[in-house]
Amino acid sequence: MSTHILDQLWQIIEARKNADPQESYSAALLAAAPEKPARKLAEETTETIIEALKGDKAGISRESADLLYHLLILWAAAGVTPQQVWAELAKRMGQSGHAEKAARKPR
After folding, report:
1. Closest CA to 61 of 72, 74, 48
2. What pLDDT was estimated at residue 107?
């Protein structure tokens, strides 16, 4: 069984943490955390929304790939692992989205 593409991407990002920012885009983003990864995530989110509103499936796919990459960069910069996010998603399985939101503590 092959490793999921997101797991492969995560491994690459983790390996780039100590790379030269001049040589690695991932390392450059991580070196400028949290501002640069957060701004790039917002940019890619906007671009994904624009493609969705246009109904451009190929554009949505391209921008979604960028969005997922930058989300993983943000996680790495913040010290959050995919396993932590998957565990949170697993906790929410089997319950209504409305019920889950209502049970959240106010921030």
Report:
1. 48
2. 64
